[in-house]
Every structure is written in C-alpha cells, then in structure tokens.
Predict the 3D structure of the following.
Amino acid sequence: MSSDAITAAPTALDHPAPAPGEEQAAHGLGTSLPQAEARAKTEGTFPYASDLWAEGLLWAALLRSPHAHARIVSVDTSAAAAMPGVRAVVTAADVPGAATYGRRVADRPVFADGLVRHHGEAIAAVAADHPDTARLAAAAIHVEYEILEPVTDPEKAFTAEALHPDGNLIRHIPLRFGDPEATGEVVVEGLYRIGRQDPAPIGAEAGLAVPRPDGGVEIYTASTDPHTDRDLAAACFGLPPEQVKVVVTGVPGATGDREDPGFQIPLGLLALRTGCPVKLTATREESFLGHSHRHPTLLRYRHHADADGRLVKVEAQVLLDAGAYADSSSESLAAAVAFACGPYVVPHAFVEGWAVRTNNPPSGHVRGEGAMQVCAAYEAQMDKLAAKLGLDPAELRMRNVMATGDILPTGQTVTCPAPVAELLSAVRDFPLPPLPKDIPEEDWLLPGGPEGAGEPGAVRRGVGYALGMVHMLGAEGTDEVSTATVRVQDGVATVICSAVDTGSGFSTLARQIVQETLGIDEVHVAPVDTDQPPAGPAAHGRHTWVSGGAVERAAKMVRTQLLQPLAHKFGMSTELLQITDGKITSYDGVLSTTVTEALDGKELWATAQCRPHPTEPLDDAGQGDAFVGLAFCAIRAVVDVDIELGAVRVVEMAVAQDVGRVLNPAQLATRIEAGITQGVGAALTENLRTTRGLVRHPDFTGYALPTSLDAPDIRIVKLVEERDVVAPFGAKAASAVPVVTSPAAVASAVRAATGRPVNRLPIRPQAAVAAPKS
C-alpha cells in the first residue's frame, strides 16, 4: 500500500509560518517568536501518532510478561491465531533478523526468548482487524513459565547468578584524582537513595507501520532519533536500512521516553508479515511497563573539609540500577561519576561507580540522567557540612564554588563560562516570599491542599539551596554531527533538517536563525524523516547547538549566494553588506534594496554540517576530556512543611541559570519552568514502585505527577548570558539543569524546616516529620 493513503488531522507537521497578523513584528534571534504549531496544538488539530489512519488498517497488541524473572517453557499461539479477525501472531521465532537491539549495547530482545528478565517484557505481538480483537487474542496466547527468583537489590547483583550472557556488571568507573591520603579536619558521611522516576508522557506511545512495494516498511512514530531507530529496526527485520523509513509524527513532548524502539519493531514486523498497515496505541499500563525510567541509585558519600569549610576530599560510591538491560546506563554512570562532587572545587576525589543489571524495570535516558542523582547526594552533604561547622549553607557553598579555569575530578579543565558564584549570589540575595503570618489565613495554601488535615500551628518554613551542573551534547567520544539544508524560492525559505523538536522549540529556533540571517519572514521547517541526512538524538540540548549550528551555516552560505552578485556589481565584498528587516544595505549607504528584489525569482540553496570538537572516553582512572561543554544552575527553594503530618508544599523556587545566550525569551522561560516542575515531582511524589520486581499501580492513580496546585511559584532571578565561544550563538542547554538541581533544593529546604537528614527521594512523609528535640 502506498504511504499516500495515510491520513490524519490537517497536517501541521511541516511547521508552516503563522498566518499574516498572527505573528509579532519582531523576529530573529533574541525575540519571543511563538511556536508555529502552537495554534494547532491549542485547537486540537495537531496530528500526533495516535491520530494516524490508513486504508485497510490493522491493530496491534502486545503480550507482556506478568513476571519479573521466569524461564519460558512454552508459548502456544494457536488459540490466538484461530480467533476471527486475527491476521498474524509473531514471537521471538518470527524475528527474521537480529533477535536483540539496543542503542548502545544490543542486549535487549525484540521478544523474550527462553527467559523473561523484567515485568512487562514483550513475549508476542498480534495484528487484528479491531483493537479489542487484538487485545483479546494477545490475552489468549498461552505461555508456560517456570518462575525464578528475581534479583531486585542492585547490591546483590554483584554476587547473584548472571541474569544475562554479558553478566550483571555493565560498567565500573573508578575515578582517582589527587592524593588518596588527604584528609580534612571535619568529616561528614551519608547514605542516599534516589527513586525510579518515570518520563510519564502525557501522550502514550503510538505508531503506524506501512509495508512498501519494495518489501520494506515505513514507520510513522514520535521518534526522537529516527535514523538510529531505522537502523535498529532494519537489523531486526533483516533488511538494509534503505528499505526502512521512519517518519516522525508530532511528538507530544519527550524527556527520554521516546527513545525506546521496543514499540516500533513489533509494529514493523506485523506490517511485513500481514502486508497491511498496522497501528499500535499503547495503554497507559503498557507505556509504564514498556519504556525506560530514571536509574534508581544508591549513593554513599564522605566529605572532608578544613575548619573554614573549604573542601579537601570527596569519597563516594555510586550504584545505578540499570534494570534488565544496559540501554544508556554506561553514559549515565559516566555523568554521575564525573559530576559526583558537583560544581565545587575539590582538590582530591575518589569515586567508585557501578551500573548493574537486575530484574527491575529497565532504566535509560531521562533528562539529567546521572547528574540528578548525585546532585541530591552532594548537596545533602554540603548541608551536613554547614551544620557541623555552624555556617550558613549558602556561605559554605560560596566558599567552594567552581569557576572557569578550574579542573573537574576527571582532569578536564573547565574552559566554558562557569559563573557559579554569580548564580548563587543571585538566588541568595533575592527577596524571600512573605511568611504565612503576613497573609490572610483563607489565602494561605496549607501543605496537603486546602482540604487537607493540617493545622497552621504545625507548619514550619524552610529555605534550602542547591547548585547543579550537566554536560551538553554527547560525551566520551560520541561523534556529534548534524546536517541541514536551507532553500529559498519565491521569497519563502525552507529548512530541511532531521532534528526532532521534542518540545525544545528547535523548529522555532530554525525559523529565527533563517529570519535573522536572510531577512526572510516566511520560513517553513520540513517534516522529519530518514530520507534526510541524520541529525542525531534530541538530548542534552544538542539540537540547539549542533543542528542549530548546521542551519546557521547553511543560511550563511545562502546569504553569500544572495549578496555576491550585488557585491560584485558595486565593487565591494559581501562582508560590507548587511541584511536588516528584509532590506539589504551597504556600509556607506550607496546600496539599498530589498531581499525580494535581490532574489529576483531565483532559487538558492545550501547544505552544511556542524560538528563540535571531539571528546574522549574516561580512562581506567576516570580521567579524560569527556565533555564538550557544561551548564550550571542555582536554585533556592522555600517550602512549608507540616511537621506533624509530614506534608510538604513548595512555596517558591528562585532560579538563576547559566544560559550562554537567550535565543527566545518566552521559550527559555517555559523550558526552565517545566524542568523545575519535573524536579519537584522527583523530590516529592514521583516514584514508580515495585515489589519483587513487579511494578505496582502502573497508572496515574498510583504514580503521582505534580498538579497545578503542587507547582510552586517559579522566579527566574537571573539568566547569565556569558557566551560559550565554541557553541553556535553561544547558547547552552536549558531544560536539563533545572531538573537536576531542583530536587536537591527542595530536599535542602525540607531539611532546614524539620531538622531531618532527608536522605531519600522522593521525600516520604515520615522523613518530613520534625526531629524530636534532644
């Protein structure tokens, strides 16, 4: 069937420019240009993957394991295959190509074959003419299991029987920096646990696979890395990559959950088997069970400091629970180990980091992976140190903050702007919100909500601080490259780049770049598919840097093509001409014309690449220039805690952030606010709980996301625009570092309010009950 038969709501996938009169006059970099698809999303006409339809459509359903660890004795699909309306049933035996896949390590089976390693692992898939028939058929597949004892404690994974042919240890990083014999006059220790945060996408995974006449398949899905998804799927299908095409549909936001192709590969297999389009729309339970989560982490710390509070040595052990498969655990561990001391100057550091397999749900890339977990621990240690020395927590941090030119414990020199002291000063000096006694009682929102059981007399206010850092782009030798084409015809510019806008605003940024460079108002961003050159995954702010850089270079090449004839005619170089508000003028005012007149009906186009400077893997001592760039953030949290009930309300989050350059003020503010809210969820409510490896309540009743009442007042106190000279536009990643920093800030504030150590995230009510007076 031709892909032309696929339909959806009126397409907004090509991100057209807003209608005349809808867009503000200002455009280009530094302005709050609205997103092109904002109106369609608001009106409900924006086409997401779940909206797609094709003629002759079949529906898919997956059978998932109810056990965390079991041996598969037999799989009987005969009853399912015999049901009216069922067109195909596929299991591990029906995978024609590679039986396993993985973005970094190919260790995850398409369907469990002989062994189940986690609750919810896919066993089989069904295609039928109705979604209910598909689900009934999946339930009719009979699987005989021999239930095995699950390994759910990551500490026991070191000595447990191997859960995978590759063993239980995925990676070990022993970081060694400085003198192991160094000691400080003051020592504090702590043991910390970070829970399993789920990406919790508002729109669950969905996709449509359509067979092609050449024996290949096209997959329409909300992919964030379409070329990698294509290559993984092609290997499992036993097809060359050119016979598999991934078309990116509307992505309903992504913080890592769109990176697992485990939904896409069974879908393509069914389309190839039946010769019909096949659609899969995951239930909320399937979404929770199928995609990866943030790594639950166990951390042990010992900080040494002198009598003035200056850090001497940090010793740490970091254990990441990768769940059943490797996924991005190696990269997450590298970030955790490298940033285990935080944005502080530490002369001596010794960190042991491990990532291990267990029978828990798989862990993977979630915004700020690795860095968020260690931030919660090292900031708790800074609070302990301040308390032991009798110092103000902000002052202790100020005495130790990192600056440009300092050296990370990995031995890498911080060459990018690192205005950490400026960020901390900004939030420390920002006025505090009014106390409850200054507000009418009826206007005071108590912890637990307006209908809660709390009493005003039991509420204590706490103020806490946290400093966080993240790396930008890939790390440890990842080849970061993106390609973009800019084409101008009939006064309209088109950007072709396979960078997926996951809510980061890349499509808006691309329009702004072209508007500023070429002086053309109407700019379109073409739909993304794998027929275009690769742009890489949408993670670590890389599309702002790498893909934005490629768009800028291509636009500048078109600019040169546009200006060269004029420069030649007037005997000057193109550098002496400028484009402003759609007009081309020379430095001396002799030349003045419009861009439209200069184009004169010509078609101009150029393709360019952007590739940042290379990095290197960490060596056997955890040393190496592993990161392209760093971004920093300071947050002051103000909380109200009911010290009798343990209920916590985050009153205000004051944030100062190192952004390099503000490219779109409104979009940047939105990204920061969203990141902080996600961090508040990790601090207080979000924990995908398991019992013996089985996920408890995989739905939004059992997994509590922050509501509008839980979201605090967010005050963006300062945005430091100190440009990173090696980054296009000088901009830095914006959304990950608030996620990393805000949970630690909330925990610090609860610590201040209650006197409790608060060594676990999310914070449980019993941990927020005030400590008894001695």
Confidence is low (pLDDT under 50) at residues 1-5, 7-25.
